[in-house]
Design goal:
By secondary structure, the protein is an alpha+beta fold. Helices cover 20% and strands 36% of the residues.
Length: 347
């Protein structure tokens, strides 16, 4: 065979090989492998964190065995909201000490409903339980946190650099889909029948366990770089098939585990703090209505603006349709003018 023919044959072999066996970078661009919604609406039923004692989750095999054990039981909302689904998996719930956490008092509902709306620039979260309403909205202009109760309402309004969302239920928290994490160098391997994707960030190893042929995440876990075991992990169950062939598989149930007590001796139990989310609605295709990001305030409510060492506290003089899309300075100036007009009898 001539040199020219050899070169041609070698070039042809390279082309065929590139098609049949794409490089890691070509095949597994994580931004393409897992979709990260840039807009959407979710409605979730979430449970405040509870503590459970169980044998320690020390390996991927332990974690996936726990996932499989719960996945083999049909979805049962009552078993989830009673935390029985974890007790059936061998975990023992630790009853909270009365008065140990006033925010999670037994007098308040442990399971609550929240709606989440977001786009590339805005985020709105509304949470209702008992007689409380918690509204948290972020826009390019300002951040708002409203706590409403029949006895009292307080509005905290700040500039956008001052974050106000304390308990955030975004797609990272609920679906393990974070653009921040997926923008890192990574390795891919097939183990335990799953595609395991590993990357590191800020001295922590992260792993995703995914279906090899679907946009479906079953688990996310993190390990410290000293390799002392898994200390945080998230599990997803009961995925719903997407409307389109290559769409996201959205779970019906997510549970996040954080290790709070590490066993010292062989045979000791570990303690985990667990939060759970039942995903009742998830739509990432329709454009979010702008009204979702409006925050009205009402006469008599307490308005608070904190900027560094400066703090303004006012009673709202009259109804305002929206403050989230106005700066605190603009809102304060308008309320001062309105209050002055009322004092002077000018309405």
């Amino acid at each position: 065979m001539t040199e020219r023919a050899l070169l041609y044959a070698f070039s042809l072999w390279l082309a065929v090989t590139a098609i049949a066996f794409p490089t890691m970078a070509d095949e597994y661009q994580l931004a393409d492998r897992f979709q990260i919604p840039s807009q959407g609406h979710m409605k979730i039923h979430h449970g405040l964190s509870q503590e459970f004692r169980t044998k320690p989750i020390q390996s991927e095999a332990d974690l996936l065995a726990l996932h499989r054990q719960i996945a083999n039981v049909p979805f049962d909302k009552e078993a989830i909201t009673s935390w029985e689904f974890l007790e059936q998996a061998g975990m023992k719930r630790i009853e909270p000490i009365a008065g140990s956490n006033p925010l999670d008092s037994k007098r308040l509902s442990v399971w609550r409903v929240a709606t989440i709306d977001f786009d590339r620039e805005r985020f709105a979260q509304r949470e209702g339980f008992d007689q409380f309403e918690i509204v948290q909205v972020e826009t390019p202009v300002s951040n708002v946190n409203v706590s409403r109760h029949p006895m009292n309402t307080q509005i905290n309004h700040s500039n956008p650099l001052r974050k106000t969302v304390v308990r955030r239920f975004d797609v990272d928290q609920v679906l393990s889909r974070s653009a921040r994490l997926l923008d890192e160098p990574f390795d891919v391997d097939m183990r335990h029948g799953r595609q395991l994707i590993e990357f590191s960030l800020e001295k922590v190893f992260w792993k995703l366990a995914a279906h090899p042929d679907r946009d479906l995440i079953e688990a996310r876990l993190s390990e410290s770089k000293n390799r002392r075991g898994i200390f945080n992990f998230t599990l997803h169950w009961y995925h719903q098939p997407p409307a389109s062939k290559n769409g996201m598989w959205i779970p019906k149930l997510t549970a996040r585990f954080s290790r709070t007590k590490t066993p010292v001796y062989p045979g000791d139990k570990a303690t985990y703090r667990v939060e759970a989310y039942i995903i009742e609605e998830a739509d990432f295709d329709k454009e979010v209505n702008a009204d979702a990001f409006l925050v009205p305030i009402h006469r008599g409510e307490t308005y608070v603006h904190t900027d560094g060492s400066n703090r303004d506290v006012m009673r709202v003089p009259s109804y305002v349709k929206d403050i989230a899309n106005s700066s605190p300075g603009t809102v304060i100036e308008r309320m001062k003018i309105e209050a002055e007009n009322q004092r002077n009898g000018r309405f």
